[in-house]
């Protein structure tokens, strides 16, 4: 397809590409040759940088297909993820880097991009290698106990050392996996991958649907003057401070005998209980004394009158934020409140119908998200895939088996528990794999070009 015979490695050159049979010029392209060991995959590679029109790409691929007989090795299209898989098989990438590349290709938000880059720069793999090395050291201690079983002093010292190392690792993994941590305390990794949920709740006709539409910049929810219009959860997603945030307009909370509306309110309570952030929407008429915007204090009686609730049955819990909407209709001026009222809260003022206060709401949401995950965002994540979590849970189970072994007894069981834990850690990075199907599942998610 080109007349060039000698290639200078890793040098970009401009050449006309011709059809090998008809000699028709297909494109004026840039070409680069990478010798074995110097390309992305580790194989000898010739990159064609074509003009991006679909006809150009299609005709060049067709010409390559027509030219198969001219090559010693038949040409064929790459399978999904084949270039990355070859890079893994040639030792140029470990499995965590491969998964991070896939995550980067599919990243939709800035937080997902940052997470993928943190996992793909080698630091995550080094974390797993360090854990595996520590386990191998503990295994060496147990093996020494088996070899010198008659020397009690050696046994006691080695056993206590191995127990301390494994106990410390178990605590570290439990923290990373958030074992025993309430579900409300989301990790940066989980929030980046799954997004955050913000519930808008309150009485009917306080402007929840209008607020959702304004924040989403589209008509996601039906707005009506009739109370009880929203009877199910209406969601819309936006990006806030690099995170995907799902806003939820919920059914208004009030006394009613309508069974369908009651079902909607039940769903509201469940959604609010599980949300990462609960925003109570109300109006100036709901307040005897209107509080100022920003950090303030409210009484328990005011909270009860507003129907404040975070979870079903938890009537005394405060919302994360209170939005006083329709401030253009307020018949009183906000007044400062003393801290003696007892309940700290953060209040927004807005007139959603007039698009007043929307920018401030988005700014404060961004500040909340940034502050919530500021520390974790700078740390190298250990768990970025469901596969990692499943394997690490099995590792924790192996460590528990080891820690349950009485001192000086069942050393074979203890050694086997650590050996299995080390193997599982190796499976995360691909150093040890118990099934070839794991690779097929990972690389099948890639696009053809990778």
From TrEMBL:
Pfam families: MMR_HSR1 (PF01926), MnmE_helical (PF12631), TrmE_N (PF10396). One of its GO terms (cellular component) is mitochondrion. Residues 8-92 form the GTP-binding protein TrmE N-terminal domain. Residues 95-447 form the MnmE helical domain. It comes from the Eukaryota. Keywords: GTP-binding, Nucleotide-binding, tRNA processing. CDD domains: trmE, TrmE_N. Residues 197-284 form the G domain. GO terms for biological process: tRNA methylation; tRNA wobble uridine modification. GO terms for molecular function: GTP binding; GTPase activity. Belongs to the TRAFAC class TrmE-Era-EngA-EngB-Septin-like GTPase superfamily. TrmE GTPase family. PANTHER family: TRNA MODIFICATION GTPASE GTPBP3, TRNA MODIFICATION GTPASE GTPBP3, MITOCHONDRIAL. This is Mitochondrial splicing system protein.
